[in-house]
């Protein structure tokens, strides 16, 4: 029976496996963060439902609203990161992982180590932010 990776050199297969493991670990971390933030957000909403919060007149109301918005923002970022990691796994399966989507050049391994879901090299990422 033929293995799907018969034509892939052993070093490349090992590198892909290590990348898949790193992406999987990052994905597990993002999922855990989403779970924790969701629990915190739901707890805050539930606690606020028990008391009549009038943000205008309650000295704690504005900080409660800020905390809720802050946690909501962190939750949205964590969800976006999870989606980006899933796309990175798809790129790995399709053979496009580690290549800049803008210029096609390889993304340096150091960048992928820090940002495993990176889709652009540093030069193209910097050009986008200008």
TrEMBL record:
All copies of domain Zinc finger DksA/TraR C4-type, residue ranges: 95-129
Zinc finger boundaries on the chain: dksA C4-type: 100-124
Organism annotation: Actinacidiphila paucisporea
PROSITE patterns registered for this protein in UniProt: ZF_DKSA_1, ZF_DKSA_2
Any one GO MF annotation of this record: zinc ion binding
Cross-referenced PANTHER family: RNA POLYMERASE-BINDING TRANSCRIPTION FACTOR DKSA, RNA POLYMERASE-BINDING TRANSCRIPTION FACTOR DKSA-RELATED
Lineage: Bacteria, Bacillati, Actinomycetota, Actinomycetes, Kitasatosporales
Protein's recorded name: Transcriptional regulator, TraR/DksA family
Keyword annotations from UniProtKB, A to Z: Metal-binding, Zinc, Zinc-finger
InterPro entries assigned: Znf_C4-type_bac (IPR020460), Znf_DskA_TraR (IPR000962), Znf_DskA_TraR_CS (IPR020458)
